[in-house]
Amino acid sequence: MTRARLGLTLVAVVATATIYGCGDDLLQGVGPADEFAVDIGETLRDEVEAALSSLTLGSSLDPIGTTQAPPDAASVVAVPCVSPSSATDSDGDGVPDDATYLFTAPPCRFTGWRGGTLDIVGSLRIQDPSATSAGFGYEATLTGLRSRFTSADTKVIYDVTRNGTRTLSGAVNALLLTAELQVIRTFAGHPDAAVDKQWNLNFTPAAQLQINGALPSGTLDIAGTMDWTRGTEHFVLSVGTFDTPLQYDAGCIDTVQRIRAGEMTATGTFGDLEGLVRVSWRGCGNEPEIRFESTE
């Protein structure tokens, strides 16, 4: 697995997650359940939020939750924190023909993110796959794009870094985001995890999408894999929303956490035990609940 320390456009604070039905001897030989289930669950949560922000170029630059008010109807973001290396946009769809965004913090420092501070640094290259025909798509290459969360009391500081690609395609009634990423995530008090992620996300909007418009409410169906390595842990996981797609609420504007319902699971073999980590969202502004379930 590649362990390049590269970046991401979105990261969140370690949540106070709830573990249900996990005894102290649940995963003998692997480690306490609260040391892997919560960390995997929080990684899933962060990846969902990162993917959600990646559904428009504007929120790829200023992630959803970095502003408290909805953007102007004419633009996905009011004032991006970073400018493109080239402003050429031949078809006027808001996606540059070929441009690189170099993030620095500041100006890409956002206060109030889960009560703390979010810093973004690194490089994001954006290319328009059809520069002469307006549309919603882009091709993205992430290089050294790192996000750092710092809690208000500075007791919790962690990074998520990414390397890889995202591809967005679609039309007014649906979007498809494909991601092939290598992720390094640090944890407060735990070793770093290296994650090889391959996901497909289908977004179905509640209202028709508009070019250069903000993302409306809608559903997210996710399926893919996540290869997790941390110390002696190596979990090859099948991840997805399956029968419970996530419900994004565009009207929930005063919080980072804008998924109001839905579940996502990561299923695999954890040591000698077959099981899954379940992440359940229950209302805007509420951090998702995380629990381990044995499937044996």
Count of helices?
2
**Strand percentage, roughly?**
35-45%
Unreliable segments of 5+ consecutive residues: 1-32, 68-77
Radius of gyration: 18 Å
- Classify the oligomer: single chain
| Overall mean confidence score, pLDDT | 85
- Quick one: overall form? globular
Structural class: mainly beta
Largest sheet, strands/sense/barrel: 13 strands, antiparallel
**How much helix is in the residues?**
under 10%
Order of secondary-structure elements? HHEEEEEEEEEEEEE
Distance between the termini: 28 Å
Number of strands: 13
Give an overview of the whole structure.
The chain has about 300 residues and is mainly beta. It has helices at about 35-55, 55-60; strands at about 100-105, 110-115, 115-125, 140-150, 155-170, 175-185, 190-205, 220-230, 235-240, 245-250, 260-270, 275-280, 290-295. Strands 1, 2, 3, 4, 5, 6, 7, 8, 9, 10, 11, 12 and 13 form a 13-stranded antiparallel sheet that branches. A hairpin with a 2-residue loop joins strand 11 (about 260-270) and strand 12. Mean pLDDT is about 85; it is low at about 1-30 and about 70-75.
